[in-house]
Specification:
The protein has 842 residues and is of the alpha/beta class. 50% of the residues lie in helices and 10% in strands.
Length: 842
Amino acid sequence: MARRSWQALFIHRISLLAILLIAALALLPIAGVNDQMPDTQRAWIEAGPGPFLITTSVVLVVAFGLFFVGRRRSQLIWRLFHTHEDWLQVKFGRIPGKRPYYWLWLAPPVLLATGSVVMLHTPWDIYWPFGAPLIAILSISFVVVGVSLCLEKLGGNDPMPKREKPDYLRAWDSWRCGDVLSMVFVAIAGMSLVRSFTAPLVLAWSQGQYIADETAAAWLFFVLGVLTVVLAFPAGALVNHLALGKFMDPRTAVSVEVVSGSVVLFAFFATMLTVFVVIPVEASGVAGVPGTATLLACGSAVVIGLLVVSLQDQRPLRIFASMGLTANPILTLIAVTLLAGTSLGGTQGLHSLRPSAVAAGSVSHSVRPTVEAHFEKWLKNEAACTVDVGGTENSSHPDVRVRPMILVAAEGGGIRAASWTVRAFEKLAVADKCAKESVILSSGVSGGSLGLTLSRLYDGEAMDKMKELAKPGPLGAAVTGAIVGDTVAAGTGLKVPTRFNDPATGAELLAWNDRAGLVESLWEQSAGKLASPFDANVTGPTGALLLNSTDTGTGCRVVISQLRLPSGIVNAGPAEPGIHCTTPQGFPTSVDLLGSNTKCPLSLRWSTATLLSGRFPIISPAGRIPVAATNSKGELECQVESGFQLIDGGYSEGSALGTITDVWPNLQAKVLQHNYCVVQASGKNAAPTNRPDEACDAAVATKDIVVPVFLFLQNSPGSDIVPRAPQATAELLVPIVGLHAKNLQVGSAAWIQRLESDSNVCPAGTTGDPCVAAVDSVRTALGGRSVVVVAPNSVPALAAPLGWSLSEISQQQLGGAMDVEADSKVKGNRQPFGDLLAYLGG
């Protein structure tokens, strides 16, 4: 039975792969990324019936396409393995019997090459260069056809396919499997609705949690999902029996109508795919995220399936027949062609960054302040918070005031992290007018970087902008680019341009946008300031921004920073051309992108700089950034192929605490110097053992004691469960179990431990001085902590997804969790973030 099932599924493998892809996206209970598809369906509650009806239409059309391809494949299998009177004129078991039509193999590459050559003589030549992808297509196509023709000339008679033995069950299995797969696809669509709405309904019933203004809509979608699952197979069998019993019957000869239907269906799905390539934003906006993913993934399978069907009556090319193949390996040829085109360098500029629309958009390395200079500027900000030590539990120094200095780390996590980060800064803003002025710098990863950028650019309006960015549009455009737009560009070299109005200039732009460019452009439509040039002007509640990315080639952490990072932690200026991520002693460091790229200055938009921190493959491509490298003539030039290939910062370190930990020693030295001078001016600490070398400034001595607070915005749920003591591991398993140690050492808990243990900013040598009192007052107010973790409580709740779209349900969930964190006491349990807000507002 297993062998028969495998044989039947293998015949319909193209449809099966597409169905499995949709099932994985919609049904696999993997927290994070796999919560994205269900969350986009929950967005239908506030969007109304339109998106649901469009997705339903897509499901029905795709189900018919899969059914049609399944029947055509079953016709071949029936002819191969089952005798029937309609096929008496064909020698049984010798199917396919027609000689290959070589023009079918040469027509596509010739047309593509002709189109590219024509484009070379037009102003649009930049969108279709004659490059590696076309060379790969032409080379593979002409080699396959040429070798086959030579073998025909040299090999004598054209060998017929081998005679297959009759296998009646296999013929019936293939027929049934093709029909059932289309029903399974419909059932999966119903299961996705059940999965999407079960959790919010259960939580609303058991916990009284918020769903939406219209709970009835959630129940309606849930019931429709259940009915679809229950009725998919009975309804499919009934429709097949009543209306389709004789339609494309595999036992009958292929009719002219069936061939015409294949052409029409191929043209329909090919046209749909073309529409999504030409107008990706508009098309995905109409179809929605679930509809876009379904139509493009399964529509591509239908197109490829019909292409395979068109060749199934022809014998394989002689080159493949000599390998013992009984059919042309279409899927393998497509994969090899794409691989060859991309490995040869791909299309020039395919994933290059979008430049700033403003001419003076590049940030000079020299204009960025150092960490030390930024601290001095921060000290001069009179609007920052100061707290009287005498007003706290420690009143031994009533004349001493504390200046809290907050360093923020915003964890990655897509739009969920962006929402969590913006909400945290909202709480800081309402705690006290000066609270947000206490932030000296912020480090972000992925969505945390987006939240920081929005807070920096929009301050009090950041939440409204975040909600606009969280709508399904950017995610739908990214899915379109991932499945068709970027695939076409990588496979053929054709970069179809898209139109956008640039908010920075007001001009209408026509340019190639890969899927990252589509996301950035749509972000800019909702938040126009994201289109402005990235600059080194430190303003807003976030302090200086340090956005973390990762280079795939070296594994380096790459920082897009408003500050000139200390040379001890980054390669700010490599001695040799190219990318470097180690010190001369071999220790790994980070890369200051704007510092290492001085010979190839970058002109970045805020949207581009932010997304460099959150390019999570496959949904976003790696950003290509040129660096100075030596060419064949020994000269230095900016080369994309030798440059950075930047992806999500979470690949190197997802908490954003790593960069804070790296920067802290330099900042700590300045804080220690400042506090030493303040204490010495008070005359209450005569001989500290860690006395700084620099002389005290009289003006500095009149300032307050600076005490650091590390604020970690962790958007994933925290844990309040005490783990059990570890059990002994079997000796044979110790090498395997021990592998998790390296992950723990770069996890957020390890970074927090390091910051807690190295947060001292007081001169050592005496006790009871004003600095120690000031630090103790802050630590006491924060429950003995230096690091304040803001994370959703581990309570029954609907998990917000990782991705670039967020439903109203998920946003309400995050909003409620942040309200809990911002309360200083919840059911008797102290909340660290609430303690911090209370301290700053006190």
